[in-house]
Amino acid sequence: MRKYQLGEFEEVVMLTVGVLYDEAYGVSVKKEIESRLSRGVSVGALQTALKRLEEKGYLRSREGEATEERAGRPKKFFQITALGKRALEYNKSTREELWNAIPKVALDVKFD
Question: At what angle do helices 8-20 and 26-37 cross, to 10 degrees?
Answer without folding.
Answer: 110
